[in-house]
Design goal:
Layout (H helix, E strand, L loop, with lengths): L3 E6 L2 E3 L5 E7 L6 E4 L2 E6 L6 E5 L7 E3 L1 E5 L4 E4 L4 E4 L15 E7 L6 E2 L3 E14 L11 E16 L10 H9 L9 E7 L9 E12 L7 E15 L3 H4 L11
Parallel strand pairs: 2-10
Antiparallel strand pairs: 1-3, 3-6, 4-5, 4-8, 5-6, 7-10, 8-9, 11-12, 11-15, 13-14, 14-17, 15-16, 16-17
Length: 257
């Protein structure tokens, strides 16, 4: 029986090759070889009279190549009406590690309009905690179910304490945090923003919220005095436009240790 190609799919794939294509038609069980352009393709499995599968070979460049089925014994070669379209293969972009020091922090007192950057950060760890409730039923048998009924947020970081070389004053951002750590009521609350200093888009990570303060000195040593700070969110954590986009100075120091 003569080879008849009704169709094949898909008709496109990248130049890396390996695209699995299925041919439908008649007389396909006599096919000995498949060529895409001048390169032989791999026939997958055993062709039937009405179906044949092959994998495209790699190609040197993008473009159209004819698909030809060959019956050596019958001295027959049939070319599909639609060429196979090779597209340029894309190589995944190399990932560069982000660093833990990507985070920047700004704070302000409740009611203030001006943000003050917190300097001297040595660690930073934003976090979420989830409140869940059992939601199992008899139909699930031994399998349990839970659903989340609340989300809280926190921000933990460590700062090096230090005075200005000329003024002798502590970092103003750290002082806003310190001033609230032993207060109650509204005096114990501050506002905080934390943001990705490596931002290239206004949508890159940046958040804001109102928080209470835990201020825990590490005790220090002869080289530095460090304090562990934990900010416990009060209410919603809000996604904000990354402030680095509007003020590139907030990215200062990113990428250095």
């Amino acid at each position: 029986m003569a080879i008849v190609i009704t169709s094949y799919t898909p008709t496109t794939g990248d130049t890396n090759g390996g695209t699995s294509c299925t041919v439908t038609g008649t007389g396909l069980d006599v096919v000995d070889a498949v060529f895409v352009g001048n390169t032989e393709a791999e026939i997958v499995g055993t062709p039937t009279a009405t179906s044949l599968t092959f994998k495209t070979p790699a190609a040197d460049s993008a473009g159209n190549q004819n698909v030809t089925l060959v019956d050596v014994a019958g001295d027959e070669a049939v070319t599909a009406s639609d060429p196979f379209v090779y597209t340029t293969a894309t190589t995944p972009e190399t990932l560069v590690n982000t660093l833990a020091n990507k985070w920047g922090v700004r704070v302000r007192k409740l009611g203030d309009t001006t943000w003050t950057k917190v300097r001297g950060l040595t660690t930073a760890k934003p976090g979420l905690n989830y409140s869940t409730e059992d939601d199992s039923d008899f139909e699930s048998g031994i399998w349990q179910s839970t659903f989340t009924n609340g989300i809280g947020w926190s921000l933990g970081f460590t700062v090096k304490r230090g005075r200005g070389a000329t003024s002798g004053n502590y970092d103003p951002g750290q002082q806003i945090i310190l001033a609230a750590h032993d207060k109650t009521g509204s005096d114990s609350l501050i506002e905080v923003q934390w943001y990705d200093r490596s931002a290239t888009s206004a949508d890159d990570e940046a958040y804001q919220g109102t928080t209470t303060v835990e201020w825990a000195p590490q005790g220090g040593n002869k080289t530095s005095d460090k304090v562990d700070v934990t900010l416990n969110g009060q209410g919603a954590r809000t996604k904000i436009t990354n402030p680095v986009i509007g003020d590139p100075t907030l990215a200062a120091g990113y990428g250095s240790n």
